[in-house]
Amino acid sequence: MKHRLFVGLIGGLYLGSLPWVVAQTVTVTTLTNLDASGGVTTDAQGTLYISDFGPQLGNPQESTSVYLWDAKAGAFEEFASGFQGASGACFDAEGNFYQANPFGGSISKVYPDGTADHRWWTTDLQTPIGLEADAQGNLYVCNCAGATIGRISAEGYSVFAESDLFQCPNGLTQDEEGILYACNFNDGKVLRIDTEGQVSEVVELPVLTGGANPVGNGHLIYSKGWLYVTAIGRGEIYRVAPDGSSYELVAGKAFGFANEDGVAQDATFSKPNGIAASITGDTLYVNVSEPIWPQDPTALHPARVRMVIGVCSIPNSHCQP
């Protein structure tokens, strides 16, 4: 498998031991501080939504909220509340918002008029995390504890995909053909799930080791022909070819455990989790936690929202800023 490293402003791309110099303009900047540690989502108009998992890697004692970015005000405002550990989320073609509640064992549905049904789906779920809706109105869910991808359709719930490759499937996204891609929290694997539910490995990204279990990936997004993945343990953002032919580091230093802005090769991320892309594909939105690993490894608050800008300048990006 080809493995390349993207190193930023004026740097080298490496394929094996052969470097060549290219000009790049990828930078990382902080959008705002926001205590929301769950999924990151955009709607059809490109509006940004940040879900709050809670202050710790554990069942929150109080309900959590989802926030949306008000571009005119230049700030986030509450979109909906009453969630139980809001993690992955998505919109369907009709503008309905779906939110996974891993500690409530449910999926919430927020209708376009703002009405929320927090018990919209409750059966057969096993720690639901990532969500994705297809063009036919089906909703797919990552069952972290069940190591499956479920499908909710007009006929009800069914197991769409199951495999030993699933190790707490966490993030979920899809391409233009309806192919699903998931990433694992308990290892570094990115997985492809075809329209028949067959599972195959795309790549295995580096992980954080040293604890009871490896800490692998957060979430992922398909944008302009590429998968972008947050390596939550190592603090990195990767770009992955969906066919598994290559992957490359877009931004972040391994084990930086900080939130330093700047050019891609110098920036650092602390627990990057949710990820979404702008409509143009030139900007990635990522939420992170403050770097307090030594004092409290499970802490997720305080948190902030950051942007990786200039993604279209990476070679073969297939997008225009």
Evaluate the radius of gyration. 18 Å
Overall geometric form: globular
**Beta-sheet strand percentage?**
over 45%
Count all strands and give the number: 27
Q: Provide the CATH superfamily.
A: TolB, C-terminal domain
Write the CATH architecture name: 6 Propeller
Give the helix tally: 0
Helix content: under 10%
Task: Determine the CATH topology.
Answer: Neuraminidase
Weakly predicted, low-confidence segments: 1-23
Label the structural class.
mainly beta
Largest sheet: 5 strands, antiparallel
Q: List SSEs in N-to-C order.
A: EEEEEEEEEEEEEEEEEEEEEEEEEEE
Neighbour order of strands in the largest sheet: 24-3-27-26-25
Task: Describe the 3D structure.
- The protein is mainly β and 321 residues long.
- It has one domain (10-313): Neuraminidase (6 Propeller).
- It is built from no helices and 27 strands.
- It has strands at 10-15, 18-23, 27-33, 40-42, 48-51, 64-70, 75-83, 89-91, 97-101, 106-110, 116-121, 128-133, 139-143, 148-153, 156-162, 169-174, 180-184, 189-193, 199-204, 220-223, 226-231, 236-240, 247-251, 262-263, 275-277, 283-289, 303-309.
- The strands form seven sheets. A five-stranded antiparallel β-sheet has the order 24-3-27-26-25, with no helix packed on it.
- Strand 21 (226-231) and strand 22 (236-240) form a beta hairpin.
- The chain is globular and about 50 Å long.
- The model is unreliable at 1-23 (pLDDT under 50).
From the structure above, extract its key features.
five-stranded antiparallel beta sheet; 0% helix; 45% strand; mainly beta
